[in-house]
Amino acid sequence: MHNGRRTLLKHLAASSLLTTLAPGITLAQQDPATKLILLGTQGGPNYNLQRGETASLLVVGDTPYLIDCGYGTLRALMQSGVSYLDVGQVFLTHLHDDHVADVVSLLGHQWTQGRVAPTTVYGPYGTDTLVEGALLYQQANTRIRMKDEARTLEPASVYIGVNLDATDTPLQVYADAQISVHAIRNTHYPLATQELLPDRALSFRFDCPDRSIVFSGDTTYSENLVTLARDADILVCEAMDHASIRAAFEALVAEGKYGDNPEGIWAHIIATHSTTAQAGQMAQEAGVKTLVFNHVLPGALNSAIADAIYMDGASQHFTGKIIVGYDQLQL
User: Fold this and answer.
1) Considering its fold, how many domains does the chain have in total?
2) CB-based burial label for 270 (10 Å; 0-12, 13-18, 19+)
3) Which among 31, 62, 155, 208 counts the fewest CB atoms within 10 Å?
């Protein structure tokens, strides 16, 4: 058994996350009000005033589950009406900064504002050290407040990072009385990169009492994602319009960004992200009912692009409902 799997099972057993339902109660009998809120929908590390970096929220009954935590997530949570103090489960698709930048802010403000229940961050290899780093960043704040305010709760005792195995078949990584979560490795990182590094990227499926919702994370076309999303109600998938993002990219380079190797970065963008057509293809092959675009490229880098541009590419393959996401969209 892989170390990540052993670590996960040990943590699940210790925290009783793999709970059972009360006698006579089934998932279908729980509160069916599952709400999906897109908190940040901008593709790439391109934070701007129109779209926040990637983050999504599932609220099942009264319980929020956070998927990715890019810059702006803390503010977006407040805008959505969901208190960041209530977030106890965070799922990271991968550890690029536009998906994790607000982990430090989330955990730090939870502790400062008095959350005493645990918050667990699940993600691929490196998630444990990401959380450790967040606590190290808050070390001075913690040290001062422990003395000045007579605090008694050590952050390391309640903020936990759990590394998940990246598998090629759906792996259950979390369950409680309301939801079941499965993860699978996707193709955001090329095989050549995976041979050099232990880092991986994941997609997640949340099976809730009333519907199933899949989050692609960043990925190009992925057979694993198709498997994970089979017959899901909603696939929240990244979407890139190739011509539009190239024009936006060139404008960024002209402004002085990506100065170390612009074409190397461009090669990464087009090789590791889903075009709108690929997103539509995966949705159709998986048989999902609704395709929701998230992590949109170019997004606000060229806000003049009509939603129809994104939808046209996907509709070449997908016959279901297509929605172009925007910040604070609730479904």
Assistant:
1) 1
2) middle
3) 62
270 band by pLDDT with thresholds 50, 70 and 90: very high
Distance CA 192, CA 65 (A): 33
Sheet holding 212-215, edge to edge: 171-175, 180-185, 202-207, 212-215, 234-240, 290-297, 321-324
Rounded Cα distance between 94 and 186, Å, is 10
d(CA 214, CA 233): 8
Judge contact between 34 and 208, C-beta under 8 A: yes
Q: Which residues contact 46 (CB under 8 A, 6 or more apart)?
A: 53, 98, 299, 300, 301
The answer to whether 307 and 324 are in contact (CB under 8 A) is yes
The answer to whether the beta carbons of residues 294 and 329 sit under 8 Å apart is no
Region of residue 4 (phi > 0: left; psi between -120 and 50: alpha; otherwise: beta): alpha
* 25 part of a folded domain: no
The CATH number of residue 93's host domain is 3.60.15.10
**Which range of residues forms the domain containing residue 56?**
3-17+32-324
| Token pair in block for residue 52 | 């926040």
Residue 303 has pLDDT above 70, yes or no: yes
In a domain, 74, yes or no: yes
Residue 24 lies in a domain: no
**pTM of the complete model:** 0.90
Q: For 56-88, give the DSSP string.
A: EEEEETTEEEEE---TTHHHHHHHHT--GGG--
Beta-bridged to residue 204, according to DSSP, are 183, 215
Cβ atoms of 248 and 42 within 8 Å: the answer is: no
CA angle 274, 59, 57 (to 5 degrees): 35
pLDDT tens digits, 92-128: 999 999 999 999 999 999 999 999 999 999 999 999 9
Which residues, 6+ apart, have CB-to-CB distance to 251 below 8 Å? 301
Torsion of CA 258, 263, 268, 271, to 10 degrees: 150
Assigned domain for 330 exists: no
103 alpha carbon, distance to own chain's centre: 12
